[in-house]
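Budget justification aside, the reviewers requested a transparent look at the raw inputs and outputs of the sequence design task funded under Objective 1. We therefore reproduce one unedited record. The lines immediately below are the structure tokens for a 463-residue chain.
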């Protein structure tokens, strides 16, 4: 019996979809104004693990993911600059060009990480009329009110506000920043629709003049459109709990007069070197950055699978080195089985299959499931073990069919020129001169070598 942890109830619950065999699922997608960093991607690896696990347990999936290609303001509150427009101005492109460019790269990242695309990809800009009529309904029902700069949701009218984050209204107010909008009835009221200032690039006609949607409305409107009033699972990162998902619940339940999501699931954050990722620290790595450093995208996926999705995961290059080594060793160990003509007793295989399944069913305990796979590979070589590993790979997505013979050790010495560049790069890193460090990495790569950073220095390898 599959059990999933529901953020709403803070409990692991037996999972029973509304329709017997099809799971309806909505995942908050990216805001496409920049490259996805490895933290964002951890959240989509989690989404993919969940989708794969559901399929493994016999369900079909109707999944929707949104692409936020309308402006999403710089703060979760309703003011600040529009992220999409800011990127467009900086890069001298239109918001459409920015959105299309980063959407394509996002999809490429998903492919490289073996993350299956949800069945329906819904772009916010293609659903503006759905959002407008959604807001109109909320206004008609008395939950939305107009101010001089937009339409706001009146949270005092909605009884359950705060039930997902378990914050009461006073705590919400204490957390809110100094209020600038004096027309709002409550400081935590949030925008459903904003009236556009003249210079706002992205704007649409609406019953309230030219404007653009508030951030949260797209997820309520698009999940309703594709999945109906109530659907099974909603996913996102933990940062969405207190604002975005709280507001989504308010909008959706107010409009429908019903519970709209049965199970809320959230992926924990990825940290880098024990702290937050931020541009100023130079640690918002992308998948391309990892590839440049000689890691394979699937080694990053392995790194993610090694931690439970509800635990924080601290990214370090030492950890990434260990993941890459373990992943390579897994492929090499499986090769013995792939090339074996021997078989294994069915009872033994069944034992592993049961253990694997019960780990998956226990709120996606994939670190444990991975452990079962490892134990199984220690059996004497047999093609049945390889076939069973491929079955497990339906959940793990590690491309285990690529099992290969160990590479012959390369004992050619690293040229002095490359070593000297790597030493210079280490010095630059110690000075936190990331630009110089990246430049030197490119120079090393041009000579056919990759460099990876470790606790006590670096390792240089032929590419
Ligand atoms: P955004 O494009 O900012 O909406 O973020 C896309 C997804 O990445 C959201 O589901 C966020 O919750 C998630 N996310 C953002 N930062 C991190 C992080 N450091 N670790 C894990 N997930 C994250
Ligand atoms: Zn959302």
């Amino acid at each position: 019996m599959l059990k999933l942890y529901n953020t709403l109830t803070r409990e692991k619950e037996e999972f029973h979809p509304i329709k017997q065999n099809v799971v309806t699922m909505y995942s908050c997608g990216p805001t496409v104004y920049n490259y996805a960093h490895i933290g964002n991607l951890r959240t989509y690896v989690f989404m993919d693990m969940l989708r794969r696990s559901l399929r493994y347990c016999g369900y079909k999936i109707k999944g929707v993911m949104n692409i936020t290609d309308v402006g999403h303001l710089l703060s979760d509150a309703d003011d600040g600059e529009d992220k999409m427009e800011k990127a467009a101005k900086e890069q001298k492109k239109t918001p459409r060009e920015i959105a299309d460019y980063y959407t394509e790269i996002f999809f490429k990242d998903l492919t490289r990480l073996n993350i299956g695309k949800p069945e329906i990809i819904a772009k916010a800009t293609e659903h503006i009329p759905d959002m407008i009529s959604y807001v109109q309904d909320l206004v008609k029902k008395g939950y939305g009110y107009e101010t001089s700069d937009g339409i706001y949701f009146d949270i005092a009218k909605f009884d359950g506000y705060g039930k997902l984050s378990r914050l009461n209204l006073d705590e919400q107010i204490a957390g809110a920043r100094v209020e600038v909008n004096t027309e709002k009835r409550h400081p935590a009221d949030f925008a459903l629709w904003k009236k556009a200032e003249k210079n706002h690039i992205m704007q649409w006609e609406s019953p309230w003049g030219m404007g653009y949607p508030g951030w949260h409305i797209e997820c309520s409107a698009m999940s309703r459109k594709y999945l109906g009033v109530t659907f099974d699972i909603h996913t996102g990162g933990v940062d969405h709990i207190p604002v975005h998902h709280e507001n989504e619940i308010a909008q959706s339940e107010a409009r429908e007069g019903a519970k709209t999501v049965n199970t809320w699931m959230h992926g924990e954050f990825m940290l880098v070197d024990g702290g937050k990722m931020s541009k100023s620290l130079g640690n918002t790595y992308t998948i391309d950055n990892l590839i440049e450093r000689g890691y394979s995208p699937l080694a990053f996926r392995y790194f993610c699978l090694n931690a439970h999705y509800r635990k924080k995961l601290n990214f370090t290059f030492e950890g990434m080195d260990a993941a890459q080594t373990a992943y390579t060793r897994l492929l090499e160990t499986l090769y013995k089985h792939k090339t074996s003509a021997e078989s294994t007793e069915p009872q033994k295989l069944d034992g592993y299959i049961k253990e694997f399944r019960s780990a998956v069913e226990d709120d996606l305990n994939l670190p444990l499931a991975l452990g079962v796979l490892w134990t199984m590979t220690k059996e004497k070589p047999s093609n049945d073990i390889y076939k069973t590993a491929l079955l497990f790979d339906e959940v793990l997505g590690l491309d285990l069919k690529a099992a290969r013979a160990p590479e012959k050790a390369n004992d050619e010495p690293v040229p002095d020129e490359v070593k000297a560049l790597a030493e210079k790069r280490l010095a630059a890193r110690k000075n936190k001169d990331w630009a110089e460090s990246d430049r030197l990495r490119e120079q090393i790569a041009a000579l056919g070598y990759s460099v990876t950073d470790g606790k006590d220095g670096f390792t240089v390898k032929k590419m």
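Residues 317-338 form the longest helix (22 residues). The pocket of zinc ion (ligand 2) is lined by residues 28, 219, 244 (CB under 6 Å). Computational costs for records of this kind are itemized in the attached budget.
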